[in-house]
Amino acid sequence: MRVRSVAKGVSEFLIETVGEIVLTLLATALLAGLVLAAWWSWSHSPRLTVGGGALLALLVAHGAWARFRDPAVARRRRGLAAVTSAGSTAVAATAVFLLLYAETGFWS
To answer: Is the pTM of this model over 0.70?
Structure first.
């Protein structure tokens, strides 16, 4: 009975460790892809890169504003508000994912 509980504990530990490694590799690849895309874009046209970044920031800000404004005014999100709200949520989720997993080696 003791061997079974030890084996179960070891298998749970290994599954969790492998899961963390996979998430860390995925986050690192995502971060590397974002950096590579920014570098490539900057090398071709710095003006368009800054303009695209500003437009993306504006859309994310609009999405956050649409999500958190007064519910009596917001009623129902349609069109641009729905798209930017979803985009803002995706950017926030990606940022949290990268903060939690991409820099784990840096802090430990």
So the answer is: no
